[in-house]
Amino acid sequence: MRIRSNLMSLPTRLRLAMSLLLRRSRLHWGMDPWLDIRTLLHGMGRPLDRRSVVFDVGANLGQTARAVRRWLPSVDLHCYEPFPSTFRRLQAVRPRASLHQVGLSRRSGSATMDQGSTTCALGSSRMPRA
Q: Which residues pair with residue 56 across a beta bridge?
């Protein structure tokens, strides 16, 4: 099998992690990224615990936070959502995370964001080009 021969060239820990992934019976590799991350790190000898941190940037209504909590229940989760109305709805959902009503950027300062015409703002925040 081609996959098995390619595994032999990988470092031992990664090879063990990949073999665990190939043997999973509930979900196939690539079906749920959070399960993939948990399984891969566990196989590499780096299990996720409360010292592990996940940042949900643009948390919206907590969809990703719910998935993180399902598959990575012990991580320290931080959700960032800049829009006031969406942030209030995120607070109402209570995703068991630290909530921050700010946007993240590579530069400090302030910027104008356009929420668009929807209340959900999925992928619709845009900043004008400078």
A: 79
